[in-house]
Amino acid sequence: MTRYHNSARRAGFTLIELLVVIAIIALLIGILLPALGSARESAKELKCLTQVRAMGQAFTFYADDNRDWYPVIPATQPNSQYLDNQYTAGGVAGLFSTFQIGDGEGSIDNMSVSGDTGFVGTPAGGAGAYINGSDKPLMRGYIDSLEILTCPSDKIDYYWRRFPTPTRRLIADAETQKTPEPPASERDVIHYNISYLYIAGLKSIDPSVQFAPAMWGDETNTGDVSLNAWYGWDWVNDAPGGGMEPNPVDDFGFNPRTGYAKDDNHGDKGGNFVRADGSADFVDTNPQATFFMNAEDIRDENLRTSNLSINLIKKDRSNKVQTID
After folding, report:
1. Per mean pLDDT, which range of 11-15, 77-81, 270-274, 318-322 is the poorest?
2. Which of 160, 161, 185, 207 is most buried, taking the most CB atoms under 10 A from its CB?
3. Contact at 8 Å (CB) between 324 and 202?
């Protein structure tokens, strides 16, 4: 009996043994959690790249039907030397919807729209229509799902009042912060539910452009319109530019080398982009410089050999494009 009781007592764990086991489990959790988090982020980046590539294919289908032109939003052109006003139909959302109410409420029949809304038509075009009167979004029928408009890594975006001027789309001027949600319908399409920017004014076949240009990729959280895109950074002089975020480095953790800040889709590492030849990859150099540089402005040898600018053959070809988000 004595031997039995001694054996029964030793069958359990001592307090020290339990503490050792708990410590080992905690150590394993500490080692594995960062690895799991990194794997999760890598999966999101890969899905984002897949979505970007799919959008490039959709644009190619559109160009095949429209004499090699990628979509250009119907708008007045005040100056023939530049492409302008591509942001007037709700920005890039105007490619996919002419009645953008997002989290708002309302009906296209009586235009009783309230809440956070985007573009819902123009006086010239009418309710839910472009300025030319067409109520069919340019990209309708070219993509299977609107959900590819939202990057899985996108956690923050901002809502600006309807029809803001591009120079006023600063984060400080946003009315509210939003959490992007993949659109289930054209009504859900609005700028804060779209994680990408578009470079309008390009063709799938263009002798004036040496290499296949980038046309669709990760946006930033500020207003990516024209020269104000990518926080409006003056990449030639490596300093804040005029008209947009005055101090993006300190205010938002902006990385001038990559063109992105810490709260953007993939942090300040860079962004995914698709080009006219269908290739897509992660770009970790400032897109403003990489895609639109003139030869005399190139100081970075890496940019000099990147072969991605649309200005290498025809100087200032970028005047005929406009970045919108």
Report:
1. 11-15
2. 160
3. no
- Host H or E run for residue 272: strand 271-275
Single-letter amino acid, residue 43: A
Give the amino acid at 313.
I
**Among 299, 291, 298, CA closest to 210:** 291
Select from 256, 257, 189, 261 the least CA-distant residue to 219.
261
Q: How many residues does the chain have?
A: 325
User: Which pLDDT band, with edges at 50, 70 and 90, does 137 fall under?
Assistant: very high
Angle at Cα 243 formed by Cα 302 and Cα 79, nearest 5°? 90
- Which strand ranges, in their side-by-side order, compose the sheet holding 196-200? 280-283, 271-275, 214-218, 196-200, 322-324
The identity of residue 20, as a single letter, is V
Say how far apart CA 181 and CA 116 lie, in whole Å.
Answer: 14
SS3 121: strand
Residue 86 in 3-state DSSP?
A: coil
Helix (H) or strand (E) holding 265: strand 265-268
Residue corresponding to tokens 């729209």: 113
Q: Which of 183, 205, 202, 201 is nearest to 192 (CA)?
A: 183
CA dihedral 201, 272, 63, 209 (to 10 degrees): 50
- For 142-161, how does the pLDDT look when each residue is reduced to its tens digit (9 = 90+)? 999 999 999 999 999 999 87
253 in Cβ contact with 268 (< 8 Å)? yes
Residues 18 and 28: their CA atoms lie apart, in Å, by: 15
What 299-302 contacts at long range (C-beta under 8 Å, 24+ apart), as own/partner pairs, is 299/236
